[in-house]
Amino acid sequence: MTLRVTNTLTREKELFETLEPGHVRMYVCGPTVYSDAHIGHAMSAVVFDMIRRYLEYSGYRVTFAMNFTDIDDKIIQRAATLGLPPRELAEQLIDAWLDETAALNIKPATIYPRATQEIPTIIEMVKGLLAKGHAYTVDGDVYFRVLSFPEYGKLSHRSLEEMLAGARVEIDPRKEHPMDFALWKAAKPGEPAWDSPWGPGRPGWHIECSAMIYRHLGEQIDIHGGGADLIFPHHENEIAQSEAFTGKKPFVRYWLHNGLLQLGGEKMSKSIGNLITIRELLARNGAGPFRLLVLSSHYRSPLTFTEEAFEAAARGFDRLRLAVQGIEPTELPSRPEHELAMLADATRLAFREAMDDDFDTPSALARLFELARAINRARASGERLEAIRYAQFTLFELATVLGFRFDEQPTGRQSAEPFIELLLDVRARLRAQRQWELADYIRGRLNELGVLVEDTPGGTTWRWT
Fold first, then answer.
1. What is the pTM of this model?
2. Mind listing the pLDDT tens digit for each residue in 173-190?
3. Which residues contact 80 (CB under 8 A, 6 or more apart)?
């Protein structure tokens, strides 16, 4: 089966074909660094990390760019509140983002462009849009002229009238049309500014991403990703200004958007404070469980984060950890003739079929859990070790494609695992000495603490209940 993806632009599932054979140019909108990143940001990062990993697993070379918006009204306001220069606040939060996403096992981007480092390219693009009649100047500001781009609205599938009716647009009598958007903003007293042909100022939000893509990836790219909340106006405006400037269409071959995350059924909002930061998630050893929670839902669907859902994901992640426990993932073991090996091969095939169908991670995960259950049963019943190792290697490899890692530094519940293993070693020695009463006492106390111990012909196993 060949990879097919759902393109927001066409609203259809399309065959994936790159502009350059074997090479994917991919851009994902990163954070505006004015406050701590939260699990909504983490969700989007996990989704596009999964997509990138699968493309690489499928043999593509991926050039992956993710930007930082490091100059913005919110950054300036927050920095003033904290008594910091905007650049210092941005640097602190960029460093935090890189540390936190590394802890989430997000692969580093090939390129991390920043808005403040793209000023020459932004000015070049604004000058070009002015020269072609797609923009105009007013008192040091430069606006994009939406009426000059007849296809404006093709991504969000709305007309200008529908956009205007549904948007809270600040009426500016200086604009030719209420939906015209800023390419360059004239400097205000005390704010960071850069020199330009229109006077000192700073770039508008939308032109920053277009300039970063144009400079680092080219006039056209294969994939542009981001949250569904960015479709309008941000990505709509990117299309207009990029295609108007270069004359190349399509600016982006495939637009991919992840669904939004809600906290307990409500939209997360910094203004009302109902957020879980990535730092708080990591403190709960939540990297693996959170990734499982995100990928258990299709990437285009909304996701509701609840404590119950998170705990269920944690238990599921523990089952995967238990299934690959003891494996040395260096090279593929030889394939034995065994039912478990046949299931492993079938799992690999079904995994590829699911992922080739618009990155259907829920279906792919279902097959991984089926294989994990079979591995745990085979281990409990004393099946051939080479068959178990072959199946474990397959499970480990496919889980890694989805970005799971099982060697994370344990905290919380997982920090107890070495002590549980020690107690079970002591219990095994007691059983060897036929001290059944004391051995049963250890098993009973562990069970009270949520650890189920099972004695099988193949040895003793345990799991969290």
1. 0.87
2. 899 999 999 999 999 998
3. none
